[in-house]
Amino acid sequence: MMATVAAIPPFETFYAEHAGEVLQLLRSRLGRERADDAFQETFLRALRAYDRLHHGEHLRAWVLTIASRVAIDTHRRAGEATEELPELPHLDGRPAYEELAFLTDTLPPKERAAVVLRYGYDLDYDQIAAALDASEDAARQAASSGVRRLRRRIT
Amino acid sequence: MTVPTDLDRRFRDAASRAGLLDAAYDVIDSELGPLLAAVTDRGLARISFDPEPERALESLARLAGPRVLRAPRALDDARRELDDYFGGRRTAFDLELDLRGLPDFTLRVLQELANVPYGRTATYRELAERAGNPRASRAVGTVMNRNRIPIVLPCHRIVGSSGDLVGYGGGLARKEQLLRLEGAIL
């Protein structure tokens, strides 16, 4: 049986649905003033990658990951130390891989994001690359070294 | 959390300026009520009398791509020309049109339609003749009915052979209003 895959909604619909939550996340991470620029940057990044999406699944996880990356980049540009993890949305009705969360939580930020987006949310590497603001190769590498690290830990 | 209006507008402007949109739309006030208008990088793609965007968004995405966003700034030219037209200061439009995906016959009919001057009318049959197929007046009616860019492509100027208005996608009252504005009827 063919799985039904959500179609990619027009960007306006996607934006209307997630803009408020993205702004909330950015304000909590950056404060009100810097959140405004980061908000614009987040949705411009999403827009740049949007026509390469293959399906409309997990767009919330995707855009919140982009927002987290933008927040980290903002801190970095300001010369602030950032040990924070890109905060992946834990609220999305968490599927079966949830029990892996405590493992992935200890991965380096980029690897964790790549592993969770790939194996948790089943996003394609070009979507993950857009979320991490990295090349597709870099996204693939981050996911595979994350998986290797997990494997070493489990066995 | 609601996104403040100025922040929302800044993003929409930036998206349009960066050339990242497959289609930009806005709702424009007019004498005929609110109109939804949309442009792509090829030109004006849609004018709709139904200002609720839902249906238009889906069909714009099918036409041009999924990056469809309300971006008022991108509609500045179209808005100005429409304002001028409704204000009686403009009798022809200079806007580029996006007519992609339309079959040859439809394009020929629309080409002839664009040549029907302001303040004049032609019949479905005459338009069919000019498009090279005198027996196709019914098909011409269908093309008028599906016109994606009414007002600018003036399907309101096409009437029945006895001079009756026949029909209009936006309702007969609007057709009559447009012809009255142009002085084609009293």
What topology emerges from the helices and strands here?
The complex is a heterodimer of chains A (155) and B (186).
Chain A: H1 11-50, H2 59-77, H3 101-104, H4 109-120, H5 125-132, H6 136-154
Helix pairs in contact in A: 1-2, 1-5, 2-5, 4-5, 4-6, 5-6
Chain B: H1 5-17, E1 23-28, E2 35-40, E3 43-48, H2 53-64, E4 68-70, H3 76-86, H4 104-114, E5 122-123, H5 124-130, H6 137-145, E6 158-159, H7 172-181
Parallel strand pairs in B: 1-4, 5-6
Antiparallel strand pairs in B: 1-2, 2-3
Helix pairs in contact in B: 5-6
Describe this structure in words.
The complex is a heterodimer of chains A (155) and B (186). By secondary structure, chain A is mainly alpha-helical. Chain A has six helices and no strands. Chain A has one domain (11-154): Butyryl-CoA Dehydrogenase, subunit A, domain 3 (Up-down Bundle). Chain A is globular. Chain B is of the alpha/beta class. Chain B has two domains: 5-86, Double Stranded RNA Binding Domain (2-Layer Sandwich); 104-181, Arc Repressor Mutant, subunit A (Orthogonal Bundle), CATH 1.10.10. Chain B contains seven helices and six strands, in the order αβββαβααβααβα. In chain B, strands 3-2-1-4 form a four-stranded mixed sheet. In chain B, helix 5 crosses helix 6 (137-145). The model of chain B has no long low-confidence stretch (mean pLDDT 95).
Descriptive key words:
heterodimer; A: 155 residues; mainly alpha; Butyryl-CoA Dehydrogenase, subunit A, domain 3; 6 helices; B: 186 residues; alpha/beta; Double Stranded RNA Binding Domain; Arc Repressor Mutant, subunit A; 2 domains; two-stranded parallel sheet; 39% helix; globular
What is the gist of this entry?
By secondary structure, chain A is mainly α.
Number of helices in the DSSP assignment of chain A: 6
The CATH architecture of the largest domain in chain B comes to 2-Layer Sandwich
The count of β-strands of chain A is 0
| The CATH architecture of chain A | Up-down Bundle
From the spread of the alpha carbons, the general shape of chain A counts as globular
Helicity level of chain A: 55-70%
